Amino acid sequence: MDIQSLEERLSILLDSGVITEKSASICLDAFKQLLRLFGAEKIEGSEMLFTHLPTAISRIERGEEIDGPMPELMEEVRQSEWFDEAMQEIRYIETIHGKPLPPEEIDYLLLHYTTVFSQNQNRRVTE
Questions:
Q1: What are the CA-CA distances from residue 126 to residues 6, 40, 47, 59, 122 (Å)?
Q2: What is the pTM of this model?
Q3: Which one of 3.30.1300.10, 2.30.30.100, 1.10.1790.10, 1.25.40.280 gives the CATH number of domain 3-123?
Q4: Which of 27, 76, 80, 115 has its CA 20 to 30 A from that of 16?
């Protein structure tokens, strides 16, 4: 997905009332952060992540709660070689959001981020 595709997706979600302006802004910022990290103009396999992220932030703003993913699945995610990188991105989101995310939302974001890192592993900018 590239920035234009994300902006179109966010516009649809905004127009339908699924997400808030703030969540769209946070999502766009997080996407740009990942583009910089990868040194790319496109992020493969990121559609689920950048659909979940603004809906998660909107749920939090509305006081809605969800159940987390299955513990067995999260055990796999925690063993991923991309776990630390995924957590860094989530901490970045918490920083721009201004408050911590609920553990259940963090778990879903970890699931999505580790998948995106895995699918884009050859695109990372080396520091």
A1: 25, 12, 24, 35, 10
A2: 0.92
A3: 1.10.1790.10
A4: 115
